[in-house]
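User: Please check token order:
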Amino acid sequence: YYIDFCARNGIEYHSIVESSGHEWYTNDGQGYQPGPNVDVTKPVPGIDMEQICDYANSKGVGVRVWVHWKALYPKLDTAFKLFEKWGLKGMMVDFMDRDDQEMTNIKEEILIKAAKHKLHIQFHGAEKPTGLSRTYPNEFTREGTLNYEVNKWDKRVTPDHDLNIVFTRMLAGPTDYHLGGFRAVPDSIFKVQYTRPLMMGTRCHMLAMYVVLENYQGMVCDYPSAYEGQPGFEFLKIAPTTWDETKVLDAKLGSHVIIARKKDNEWFVGGITNHEARELLVPFNFLAAGEYTVTIYSDGPETGDPNQLTKRTVIVKNTDSIRVRLNGGGGMTMQIKRI
């Protein structure tokens, strides 16, 4: 089901975290914490990891897994050798929760040994990036932020918080912000719920975050039916995760930001605002001479459903600029192609 969804929509990886409410690997601990008999080399009954990887590979999808670092680290060499044999492509290593020298050394050891087995790493419960991914490019991303997963138990991840992250993280590496929430509600009716979690801000705010944030391994965090047929999902299928060039077009701490990023021959623009509605002016003077087709995703009516959006296409030159209206907690994105 999930692998087929990834294959249909050009999503490169599927992550396996658990099975029937339990970690995918043998563990007698509680609350995801490793117990005395935890073993990341032994999947729980019902999971044939090699068979899953074979099926995914036949569909052009890579499989990655979640692991608690305390469960992984004692068996690092054995586990990585087995993971490569199964056909896994990478993993999220979680609950590190420290930034002391010992933990920094552990992260580096994990990256070095993972690279030998062609595995990529995503550190979770980890501190802000400090440049380690420049030395070890198999570190695809790390958490280092209070992000959208917190919506399942708290109300602190607001559009204002999203905006602050742009100015306070990613100075020395990417951040995993758990993007992909497609259940936007006004701040006034937001409520915490673990299943089918909600998000504050608009659908276009979420789309723009895929451009505004630097993250080499973007995600769609929900289940397939939350996306297929939904406004804006087509943008997630084409949004790059790595970039050749980046330009900040406009930015004011606590207010708004507009960032343009280039991938191959296309430019993508993302802009978000805080809780206040505003009009942003997007100049195209970063483009070379010529004409370009610009597909614009912008917020729908301010009094309407925040999950609705407006999509339009215009032709521009590098001497042009466009004004885009953003609702409170809103955003906009653009895909720019040379004619």
